[in-house]
Amino acid sequence: MYTFSSKLKTFSFILMAVGILGIGYGFLNAPKDIQEVETLLAAESHDGHGAVHHEETKVEGEAHGDAHHDKAEVAQHDAEHTEHLTHVLHQLQNKPWAALYVACIFFMLISMGVLAFYAIQQVAQAGWSPVLFRVMQGITAYLPMGSVIFFVILILCGLHFNHLFIWLDPEVVAHDELIANKSSYLNFPFWIIRAAIFLIGWNLYRYYSAKNCVAQDEATDNLYYKKNFKMSAGFLVFFIVSESIMSWDWIMSVDPHWFSTLFGWYVFASFFVSGITTIALVTVYLKSRGYLEYVNTSHIHDLAKFMFGISIFWTYLWFSQFMLIWYANIPEEITYFITRIQLYNLPFFGAVVMNFVFPLLILLNTDFKRLSWVIVMAGTVILGGHYLDFFNMIMPGTVGDRWFIGVSEISSVLFFLGLFIFAVFTALTKTPLLPKRNPFIEESKHFHY
Amino acid sequence: MSNKVIYAIYNDDDILMNAVKKTRAAHHHIEEVFCPFPVHGLDKAMGLAPTRLAICSFIYGCIGISFATWMMNFVMIQDWPQDIGGKPSFSYIENMPAFVPIMFEMTVFFAAHLMVITFYMRSRLWPFKEAENPDVRTTDDHFLMEVAVNGNEEELISFFQGTGAVEVKVIEKH
Q1: What values do phi and psi take at B151, rounded to 5?
Q2: Which of A318, A323, A361, A369 to mutate to test the interface with B (most CBs of B within 10 A)?
Q3: Does A197 touch chain B (CB under 8 A)?
Q4: What mean pLDDT is predicted for residues A199-213?
Q5: What value, to the nearest 5°, has the Cα angle with vertex B35 and ends B30 and B40?
Q6: Which of A14, A22, A366, B107 has its Cα between 20 and 30 A from that of A30?
Q7: Rounded to the nearest 5 degrees, what angle is found at the Cα of A78, between the Cα atoms of A75 and A83?
Q8: What's this model's pTM, rounded to 2 decimal places?
Q9: Burial degree of B26 (CB within 10 A; 0-12, 13-18, 19+)
Q10: Pick from A337, A345, A378, A319: nearest CA to B103
């Protein structure tokens, strides 16, 4: 049995406390009304940045799909100015919300990535991974907590606490024909019901699969193993459908004027590789503390191969999405990337370096894949890179050129990281770290590559 | 100095593996082992150095991507920078997404083909090459270990018979 080290527990509480303070600071610091924004912008233009920001905001205004923009062209200069201020106000008010949203969805989807990987291992009857099943179940224990917080945030969006999803604003929909045409799909009741179904479905699988896995330990036959096999197969079918719709609902609809067909796969690859990386990091940690007797460097090597392979898969999808749109250059699609390249140049291309170039060069070598410190280093960069990836997906549509990785963003990550560590390592103390009667456990114990 | 070698023939890969380990422990120099199929762990038991083919392949891949980059930069950007469908041809980086499929394919092409050719050259394989099997049964269901004879021949023969060989032959090599 694993015992939660008191140091790690304290560390996770510190992370949560610091995170909450930072998140609160971010919300308190957001401007309340237009006057505040005006003084803010005036202060900025004294620094000589004002003009630049003004230009960029205009570009962003189009990408944002702000329905008021067309009207603004014929309006008086004053009206235009007020409109600009309102626009900036919305972006600045969105900033702490978007920071919270990105961190929340990122950590929840990490545990989903682990759950998907776990289900695949069950269905594929993998001979190497059963010694890691309890680690994976431990990591997915964050899912119920993460989904509840995430669901609450979605409801708050629907109650107009923020402007993360502009299609939730009836004022915007009334003036925007493109969004109005999508309102049979993009409306709050349908959207929140879909979210509830997906989250409940995923959590049910997680709960019963872990339960059966423990029951299999005490059983005299393989009934629970077979149950889990069938349930995992069913879950994977449900998962891939729900994952696709989830990516439209929770991420793509931030830019409701834009659509892309491979987006679901792209999002999947991003959190799938993050999930595998998290498994590797937790495994390396537990191994270093002497808890995983049967895990050897071959298991680590296999996880590293998955990290490497899925990183490349992510890049393949990233590039396919980018290149097809760049090549055809159709105005209604290209704005998505123009915003990102002009306003988010470093995070946009930085994510490719962190998620592709770095893992490609470091995880290519088979000897490196067996070294703990290489796994930890590569894993940290990959997780950072995929946070940045989610940042790039959400931020341009919510805060536009007002982005910054500052107090709000870092504290949100720290809070959810603390919660994640607490949930995962608490769950790991609840069951023995080695499944007893899994049909493949002997093979897995002696796995050697 | 005679060029005598011993051919110890086995009919099971497990017995062969044990024989190889015993032979190594007795410090007899194994010239070669002939197998009808890859025996897992045989290279390790024989103490062979790991292959460097993967490193070669990586270098070939680097050559491939460099060649692709140089070629397309010269053709599309420097030599005749036309406006083709509005694609920016002012610098390589501006039009790079369009070149990536070719860069990728050339990397794979160079890495794969040059590695295969390296393999053929290093293992001396080519059409019309004279086959080197010492015993035709080694391509079907027998394993053969070739060990050079130094000193006491009788002792060596009984040593190999003790390792479970189905047949031990002494051959004069030319």
Answers
A1: 80, -135
A2: A323
A3: no
A4: 96
A5: 90
A6: A14
A7: 75
A8: 0.91
A9: exposed
A10: A319
